[in-house]
Amino acid sequence: MGGGAVAATIGDAHTVEQMLIRHSILAGNTLNGAASDVFTGSLMHFVSDGYNLVGSFDASQILVPIPPWWSLSRKHWPKAGDRDEVPLADAVALDGIVVHDAIVSAGVDAGEPAVLWYSPGTEARNRIPAQRYRVSVLLAQYQVRPGREDAFLMAVLEQLRTEYAARLGSDFGEEFGDVSGIPFVPTPVTWPSEPANAPWIQFWRQLDAAIDGRLGAAGLEDAFWGSFDDVPGEAGVILSRRVQKRSVHLAVVDQRGERRPDGGQGDVGAIER
Q1: What is the torsional sign of CA 85, 38, 99, 121?
Q2: pTM beyond 0.70
Q3: Rg of the chain taking only CA atoms, in angstroms
Q4: How far apart are CA 210 and CA 60, in angstroms?
Q5: What is the DSSP string of 215-271?
Q6: N or C: which end of the chain has fewer CB within 10 A?
Q7: What is the pLDDT of residues 13-70, one digit of tens each?
């Protein structure tokens, strides 16, 4: 359905609510000939623990932001050390492929010796701190004055026009016209299939398309919602934010059982140089 490396499914078929990647190389994969490395599908949250090298990152089908249940920010990317649009040749050493001396591949390169690992490339070497570090994930929800439910979408567009005018333009979103009256019906679990929520979902899909990668691969992520300005007065849009922090550390050994890091910092991926 989507995704050449790591992928979640779409819609009612999905059985996963959160995907987390950490210290990983996901690059050089394809689906039907097109680059495809991370495909979030209709996840509730995509989370990074940092220091990932990703080629193609596609979050176009993740569940849209919604007012309640701490579910405005869903794309917790990028974090420290994360990069996307990384060429495969920079992520791994293509001349450093190690293959098995007896097992034959039944998949890619069928009939050839099975690949055991790739050595880290120049962009993967000495990147991950040897000591523990902290990663923060932002959760947010909002409230508006009764009868002014329309104010939130207008506040989002205004925030984009002012804070991101250099990248999006001060007239960004005018093509959306009047967004007042677009409802969100808070039906737990089934809200994506609630017919009354169709305009809400369509708005966010169109917004992502209009942004078109100019705010990074993830679009509206933790940094956007963390800097969102409350709207005082009659509109009364107020965001509540909650930050979850956790400690992350480099794995003690790599795929071969070798101790990490080999130098002052660890290499991204499963193998130390």
Answers
A1: positive
A2: yes
A3: 21
A4: 12
A5: TBTT-S-HHHHHTPPPB-TTT-BEEEEEEEEEEE---SB-TTS-BS-SSSSBPSSS-
A6: N
A7: 667 889 999 999 999 998 888 899 999 999 999 999 999 999 999 999 999 999 899 9
Contact 26, 34 (CB under 8 A): no
- Sign for the CA dihedral angle at 211, 60, 55, 28 comes to negative
Q: How far from chain centre, in Å, is Cα 214? A: 15
Supply the angle between the helices 198-211 and 151-163 in degrees, to the nearest 10.
0
Residue with tokens 């987390």: 20
**Nearest Cα to Cα of residue 78 among 159, 137, 121:** 137
| pLDDT at residue 235, as a whole number | 60
Residue carrying the six token digits 């420290």: 80
Helix (H) or strand (E) holding 140: strand 133-143
List of residues 6+ apart from 63 with CB closer than 8 A: 42, 43, 44, 71, 74, 192
CA 74/CA 141 separation, integer angstroms: 11
186-238 confidence digits (pLDDT tens)? 999 899 999 999 999 999 999 999 999 999 999 999 999 998 877 766 667 88
CA dist., res. 234 & res. 88, Å (int): 52
Share of the chain above pLDDT 70, in %: 95
